[in-house]
Every structure is written in C-alpha cells, then in structure tokens.
C-alpha cells in the first residue's frame, strides 16, 4: 500500500505541489477575514493597517508578492493573515508596528508608481478593506490607466508566459514584449515592433505582448524591471532565451529580429553551398568539425546563437574552401581568412569569432557601442580629421600598430565631428589623437595619449596601459591662459584642480572656497554674484582664495566633492589644500552666511577680520551705495526723458489723422502716421523687420522691442502675427512710424493673452517699419 501511495504522489506531484503552494498563499480564518483593515499609498509605499491587538509571538514574514503576518492576540487566540499582493514590494524593507491596538504596516514598492488595488484577487476583503484617507496621497491617474500601444493590433497577440511556452514547444519562434504598463520609457519603440510584426509574423513566427503585472510569473521568470534598457525577448525551442535591443524604426527592428528565424548554424554539404553562403553573407565564420555530436560542435552552436545578427556561422563535416578539419575561419574584413582556435568553451569561442569578424580599425557609429562593449576589451578611441592631408597615412599607421594588439584591445576611429569627445580624455581638440576607455559607459575610466602621434610612441602608450602603468585621465577644459587677479574668483579646470584641493603629502599653497556648478544650475547667477563679493572682501587675506569649476566641462571627483550627478544647485566647498576632505557649506548662499562660514573655519580670515576685512566690507558697502545712487539718478533721468518723448508722441498722435486700414473698414484697425516713410509697401509673403512698443489703453506697457534693442521680424500675411499687424504693415512704407489702435477681434480676442493682456483688450502699438523684402536678405 505504501509503495502504491508513493508512486501515486510521484506521478501527480506536478499538480499537487502548485496546489499546496497556492493554498499556503491564501490562508486566513473567518476572524482575520472579517477584521477591519485600511490601506493607502503614495508613489513609493503602501500603508496597510490591520485592526488586531497583537500581544506576543508576532511574525511578519512578507515575500515579494505576499503579505504574511501571524501573532497571538491578547485573548490568546492565534491571528494569521496571508494574501497575495497585486504587485511586488521590497520585503526586507517592509515593517509592521503595533500601535494603539492595531498593526500599522509600511510596504515599500519594488517599482515606484500608484497601484490600482492592494490584492491580486479583486474580491478579497471586499467588506473589510477600506481606504485610509488620512494617509492617502494624490494619485497620478495617468499611471493607473496607461495608454495601450497595442490596442487594435492583431499582429501582436496578448499572451501569458505559459501560453508562450506552449507555442515554443510546438516549434514557433516567439518575439515577446514583456513589460509593466507603468514603465513608459520604452513605449516609443513599440511602433517599430508592431511594424516588424506586420512584416514578419506568420504561423511559425509569433509576436507577443505580456503584461507582467497581470502575469506575475513572467516578471520573475524573465526578470522584468523598470530600468532604461529597452529589449524584446526571443524564445525558441532548444535555445536559451535571447534579448534583442529595441530599435526606433521599422527597418532596424526587422533587421535585428530576422536572424532569429534562421538556424544559428547553416549546414554546408559542399563547395556550391559555400559559394552561395558567401554571396549572401559577406562576413561569416566557417567551421570544419568532425561530427555534430562533439563538444566542439555544441560550443559552436551556442556561440552562433549568441552572435545572431552580428555574424553568420556555417558548418561542414567535409573539407571545403581549401581548409581542413578541425578548423574555424572568419571571412569578411580582410583579404585573408582569419583563423580562430577550435574550442569547447562557447563563451570564449563567441568572443573570438566576433573579434576576428571586425576590422582592425573600425569606423565609429552609435550602434556599435553595444557591440564593442560585448567584446569586453578596452576600446582605443582614434580621432582623425578625415579632411586633413595626412588622414589616410595616419589611419594606415595606427592600423598597423593596432594589428599588433589584436585580441587585447579594440580600435575604433572617430571623425572630426566627434572631437567634442576629446575633452573626456583630458585632451585638446586637435587631431590626430587617441585615448583608451575601458568601455563606452560615460563613467568609464579613460586614458588620454599626450604627445606627438607616432607609431613607436603609440606602441609604448598601449603597452604601458596593458601593464597597468597609466593613471586615468579626466575631462578637462584647457587651463586659463591668464592668471586670476587678486580679489577675483579664480577659474579652475580639472588639470589645475589639484593645485586647489592638494594631495596627501603634497598640499596646495592656499585654502580655497570652491564653487562647483553647471551652467544650468538653478542658483548659479546668484551664487556667482555672492562669490564675487566674497572674493573682493577677502582680497588681502593671505593664503586664501575663491575659485569656481564648471562640472559639466570638467571631471569632479564625487568622493572628494559629494554631490549628486544630477544635482541642480551649485555647491560650495572649503578646500584646505593638505589632502584632507573638502568641507561642504550647507547654509544659505548669501554674502553674510558665506563670510560667516569662512571666518569660522579659516584661521587667516578670522585673524584678518578686524585689520582688513571689516574695512574692505565697509568700503564695498559705500561703493555699492554710490553705484545705487548713480543708477537711481540715471534711471530717473531716463524716465524723465521717456516721459518727455511719450508726451511729444501723444501730441503728435493727437494731431495725426485716424485712418481705418482694416480690410473690412469696421473701425477695428486704426492707423495714425507719425513719421512718413518712402517707397513702396511690403507684399504678402515678404519678410518684414520692425520696432514696436505695445501698451494698453491706460498706457501700461506690456512689450517693447525697443527696450530689448532687438527688432522683430515676421513674414507678412502668413498669420505669424495678430491680424491688426498683417493688415496695417501692408499699408506702410520703409521708415514710416505709426500708432496702431487694434480692437480685440484684430488683436488677442476675447481670451486675451494673460497675464499681461486682459480678455477683450484694445491695444495700441507704436510701430516703425525698418525694412522688408530684399532689404532683409
């Protein structure tokens, strides 16, 4: 009997185990099911409260998609609550605290976004679970109802992971987009994916989409995340799942997918097959091996599968093409075939096949970055001005050197248009030049070659790199050509930064207050003005300086200067020059607070405060007051001058004849000529250049090209300006100045143009036609 039972259990284990696991995930007694519960969320966490008074033996053991809480209540009754969550959480960061007879739980979300419900089973806890409005945060409705890129697309079918596996076992090749609906950064690639599906789908070539939120198994099986790598999954029988990088256009997407519809290894039976294969595959590998059952053939198959779309692979059990088994040859980028060692290590074989298929000195394209990163070799960046007289000779010389380092380094050639990359290697923008990067990542260590570009010098540089004798180079602007003057903010670049920060045992001469900024930093202008004043105030302090470095154009070590890569504000650091870590200033960026900081931290500033700094500040204050006084007088004089001009203008306008220049002659566009012009008027379609000042009827000015010192240009009669202008300027001549009165229908209508132009406003424009047509060309 025992044997019969055991045999039955073994035979049915595939059904019993999932059933037992499923039952274990959804256990709760009538007590726990009826217990009042509340939930709330923000973008990053779930807040779940259970009305249970846990007294002892509390065990909170959540899993990524399971809530699990057990405890003994004060009554002695065992409370147990376990259910499957709608979406994944971070179990190790999740907590449940006993507060006021309740369990208050915080469950950080694995992916930041708003859930549409708490439980996977929508009907679970229907009576007992209520929203906790005291903790609820506003939801982003766009995240709850994402746009469906696949709506109405029959060529991309909705599948589950299980259904995909069934199709694969039937012999289909499935290209699947497996995604979370709130991860939208790859949405732009789905148009090309749909187009590829229309072009390529068939009974044996299926295009699928799997919503990983609805099919949780797919999210774990295929490790679906919300990172910024956009890939599609390729699944077929007897092969490991593969990833195809998403493309933005149909042609590239089709080209990337097509290789998966053919065998990874093409079997050749003779010379005729080889000739045909060569014709359709200009770059390929030919493997001559004895027996398809050998370890070497199995390695070849796996290597070929990983190289789909990068290199075609052919196999023959007979000697063809003038080669004998066992051997592997790579054809394509040189006149002679390149030999690759036969190996049973598929990873190493794939690497060498790909390497030997590439040119010794390859031309750079953005698409090749991923290819070269996959090789795992450091990449030598070769910069050659393709228009220079020495371009061919430079390329030939470097190619000859590169051939000596084949298998150790990759070599990629960049053009003149790519010279902006030179600063990443700390090099000036002169060519020829070269540098080494471990890979194409933005933060990869880089090593710039400095000196005259020659074969021997390059060999020595490359050899020193491989021997680990080089120190990394970093992005740097050229050092300033002039030394900064006392009392001014010094400009620092990466190549001169060591003079500011100092190294252990080789300190800088001064203590320096350093501003690290990016041109777009939100408070950069204010901080610059503050530092200008601080530098001037501390001009006479010995051994102290103020400096600034542009972090967008120079490498800044974030270990020494801790600030986020995407930090949007400037940061101030006090550098002591003795190799010690710079100290960040965390106060308000104001003259008072910054001076207070350095006076407290820098002995020389404190010592000089009474003897020189206070007097300097007093003098600066007096100079600032004098500047303000002079500016106020100038502004007053300018205002009086403008008022006088406006008065004269009003007098001229009052005397000028009012002419209705509107096409409808309904009084909506009135022109009064102040100064007559000469010649003809501009025609429809001609470019017009003019000065203008726009005011409301009460005299409030809302815009003026004259104040900006920048004339305004537009094409007449094309609707680029308000109708009043299109119709009025058609009646003016070059040099003419006029006052236009434009009622709302011919200006900005009943809506106006808030905040400066109210609804239904009649506007006045003091305009001057400066030129038009050929005058502008």
What does this structure look like?
It is built from 20 helices and 35 strands. The chain is an alpha+beta fold and 777 residues long. The longest helix has 53 residues.
Features of the shown structure:
5-stranded mixed sheet; 777 residues; 30% helix; 23% strand; 7-stranded antiparallel sheet; extended; single chain; alpha+beta; 20 helices
Q: Quick summary of this structure?
A:
The chain has 20 helices and 35 strands. With 777 residues, it is an alpha+beta fold. A hairpin with a 7-residue loop joins β27 and β28.
Strand content: 15-25%
Distance between the termini: 103 Å
Number of helices: 20
User: What structural class results from the helix and strand content?
Assistant: alpha+beta
The residue ranges in which pLDDT falls below 50 over 5 or more consecutive positions are 13-31, 141-145, 503-507
The general outline is extended
Arithmetic mean of pLDDT: 88
Quaternary:
single chain
Q: What is the makeup of the main sheet?
A: 7 strands, antiparallel
